[in-house]
Design brief:
The chain has four domains: about 10-65, DNA Methylphosphotriester Repair Domain; about 75-140, no CATH class; about 160-250, no CATH class; about 265-355, Arc Repressor Mutant, subunit A, CATH 1.10.10. The protein is about 45% helix and about 10% strand. It contains 14 helices and ten strands. The chain has helices spanning about 10-15, 55-60, 75-80, 80-95, 100-105, 110-120, 125-140, 160-170, 215-225, 235-250, 265-275, 285-295, 300-310, 335-355, and strands at about 25-30, 35-40, 50-55, 65, 185-190, 195-200, 205-210, 230-235, 285, 320. A four-stranded mixed sheet has the order 3-1-2-4. Strands 7-6-5-8 form a four-stranded mixed sheet, with helices on both faces. A hairpin with a 4-residue loop joins strand 6 and strand 7. This is methylated-DNA--[protein]-cysteine S-methyltransferase. It holds the Pfam family DNA_binding_1.
Length: about 350
Amino acid sequence: MLLDLPDEDSLYAALLARDASFDGRAFVGVTSTGVFCRLTCPARKPKRENCVFFDRIGACIDAGYRPCKRCHPMAPAAQADPVIMHLLKALEADPVRVWHERDIIALGLDASTVRRAFKRHFGTTFLDMARQMRLRTAAAELPQGAKVIDAQMVAGYDSPSAFRAAFGRIMGLAPGAFVKDALLRADWIETRLGAMIAVSSASHLHLLEFVERKALPAELRRLHTAAKGSLGFGRFDPTDQIEAEMTAFLRLEQDHFATPIAPHGTPFSQSVWRALRDIPAGETRSYSDLARSMGRPDATRAVARANGANPIAIVVPCHRVLAADGALTGYGGGLWRKQALIELEQGFAARRQES
């Protein structure tokens, strides 16, 4: 990302100056609002710490940002291609609709033509764009406790066979290559923040990640190696338990998780993850705060690395760690999810203050 562009401080200066020379070449995602804009956007300028820059629209969407309604960053492509304009209007009218290829065909459009057009202009497909828009729209409603139809939140696996095929692609193996009666078994759970992959043994949860996490393939290969290839599909009790607890958590019904977690990672990493679980829901810490709480004030960078290597999303709440200035920092599940979780957990904090 941004290989042909100046550093982010220069891009922020260009944003303040509304420099038109970056139109179509650079876009800004605003973490505090969840939107992405052209650098020439007339809206009030965000703070520097709330800005993340991208070199293509597809990267903005993949990161969970939705297009600004002031500067309409996708408008040039829509104006140049009637097919794109038609589908973008449909998406804007119903951002939580679950789209399938058959829906595109039903509109009288050729699915392969649509796929090529969106990849050419945006660097992503229409179906992927629609999925990200759906998730981001629903996540924005979570802190207010809005009830969202479960079908609107499905992240893209319509059946167990679709999940197995996608999982096989991640691992680089055919679905039939996975072991029956394996020691570790993988399944997906659907949450209001999108689909997650859970890997469990008979006694412990070994992995819980959003399917978009870039580190997911490496994490799965590590488990595959650790289990000497005994990784397959299905569920043990820990997966059922974490699914029920995750549903209750996102409904603000409980602020803790009791599912047993497998002790992966180095002793230092495990100590960081224990410290993360000591942060109450609704509170945040900086990396240096976390290092000091562990009695290791000189280990801030090591704490940050361990934080980023956490394989159990939400349960081990690495989303509760912010930069020293309070800005959102990198999160494997996407900054928009981190923002949604922090806002959601304020409900737990409010309840503690009332009691």
